[in-house]
Amino acid sequence: MSRKSFVLTMALLTAAIPCFAQAARDYVSIVGSSTVYPFATVVAETFGKTSRFKTPKIESTGSGGGFKLFCGGIGVAHPDITNSSRAIKKSEIDACAANGVTDIIEVKIGYDGIVIANAKKAEQLQFSRKDLFLALAKNVPDPKGSEKLVPNPFKTWKEVNSDLPNTAIEVLGPPPTSGTRDAFVELAMEGGCKKFDWIAAKEKEDEKQYKSICHAIREDGAYVEAGENDNLIVQKLEANPNAVGIFGYSFLDQNTDKVQGLMIDGVAPSFEAIADNSYPISRPLFFYVKKAHVGMIPGIKEYLHEFVSEKAWGEEGYLSDRGLIPMPVAERTAVAQDVKTLRVNVSRH
Amino acid sequence: MNELVPPKPKTIDLVNASLAKRRASERLFRGIGLISIMMALMFLFMLFYSIVSKGYTAFRQTHIQLEVNFDQQLLDPAATRHHDVLSSADYSSLVKASLSKLFPDVTSRNEKRQLHGLVSAGAAYQLRDMVMADPALLGQTLQLWVPADDDVDMLIKGHIDRDGPETERRLRDVQIAWLDQLAAQEKLSLKFNMLFFANGDSREPELAGIWGALMGSIYTLLVTLLLSFPMGVATAVYLEEFAPKSKWVDLIEVNINNLAAVPSIIFGLLGLAVFINFMSFPRSAPLVGGLVLAFMTLPTIIIASRGALKSVPPSIREAALGVGASKMQTVYFHVLPLATPGMLTGTIIGMARALGETAPLLMIGMVAFIVDIPSDIFDPATALPVQIYLWADSPERAFVERTSAAIIVLLGFLFVMNALAIILRKKFERRW
Q: Cβ contacts (< 8 Å) between A20 and chain B: which residues?
């Protein structure tokens, strides 16, 4: 390398890295839940292709990570919208307020079902939430009948419930960082846990102990953490007909020729059953908007309108093609009204 | 003389006696070596086979031929030819009209929906881009090949079992019948998948492409190269040629070697703390990605460059100094040119490693859904390996083959870069 070109590169470098602050942003920045990500990205893409605005940028950070970034402050360096597979927590509202993020608009977009499935060629099983709790909890009530907890002794489904087949319990599910896992634990595990009256009674006395009983998943190998990749779980189920998997409804929707959704409490995970709330393990999905950014960043308002339009989140909209379960018409109208008027509906109290 | 004492064994006999054993152990060692190489090759072959066999189909995409009438009345009734009017016109109804012309007996609302589902949403964007580029098309009727929906593509490529029960497929029986009809009229065919190379990311598998991710990778690597190469070479030259021997220099050396072994996610955390939180650089920008990867590759480049400088024989330096060159002149005109091939090799290998890196990019927001193609180092962007990661996690089945196809492209780039490093070394390397 000649001396001249060396000097030239050095000069270029010093010119290329001035310390600068970000001046403006002409695209919407969205962070948050990986469950909402497949829906938000479709809306963002349609919005980008059909409007004069740039396509919003969407990062999949998980619900908690999304709120952390979202509550970082007001200004172009911070995201405008965060997606979430659960409602915002009080602690997060406080964290937001501490950084000056006070006017937050909550938008509920629909429902997502959590599916328990096994391979198509395997036997169609039927679980109750109680079965799931007994099969997967770290500690279960003593099978001999006393009101105390013992480490989960069950090795096969038959031991859990005599109606189930005599195969080993092997469940592939998401890791603790996943929102799907949170929802599964809260809806399925806790739902089954409550069926024991003496545990349900603990909810009032000692909520912490109640949660630790109902929410702890066994770690002796019967529950296999299969990573955040739901496609991987589908592939593993196909290879192993004895295993049962836990994942989001949209993956069942795309793979009905490979896996079958199992009935929970007698209800199969179908589009209709999740929509009318008869399927027990379903949860609402949300996103949260920073009102202070509307008007500051071009396109936020228009993106919101695209999201709450009937062609997106309606019964025949493109989001339902992707597996989002729409809300009833009255609820959709109410949420859309909030969005159009930008009504701040998250308060600190 | 005692004749009963056996004669002392000759060395040659001892050697001959142990020969079989020694040969056997040599054979065993060779065998083990051969087996390990065969196993490595086998795994490599399995990897390539699984990627290529899954991915090669993605380079072709099912298209449907439609007769499209660019209806002036529908698109631009006032004949303004204005940019905004043409841009926001309803092109999907053109696609729907031409499909209805092909299947005039489809009338019920539900069946119409299913019929329109055969063609990708991208067809409307394709028509819009054509009209925007050439408004004279208005009023004309053309035969066009438009991309089919990803479910159709999967059926044609055999990834959906057409004989299975209807409820287990994403395509209904009537849709398959229509497709058979189209195929019989030669209006259905697999064509080279241009969109895969020209588009950015998309949630419609048939529209998703790697161009955005590739540009992101290129911008990122450009920043990395511009930073890490001059800095790495300057550091190596100073440490090797000018630095006095002292405890401090030893300490720096040890630390450089340690840095080369630091997990890359740590550099991502550093980038998040320093560049984004402290210096408020934009998130998701190739600038920050490049800075972070530059930190990661610097130690590799420094170590390779120092190796290259060390291999230049001292006689070259002594000769230059002997004819009156200064230390600076010796280094710049004699040592550096001879060490350049080695330095370039190290740099290219460092760059190849940076190209395949995702972990540090996760921390600085480059793992994101970005549709628009980045146009400079400040625009939000992803990188090729990140795109692979995102597609692998998508529910649509058509992304499986696209994931593998993107891996093929990434492997292609890595292969070219490593080949370049070998060619440079072979061509310019001098041995003394």
A: 281
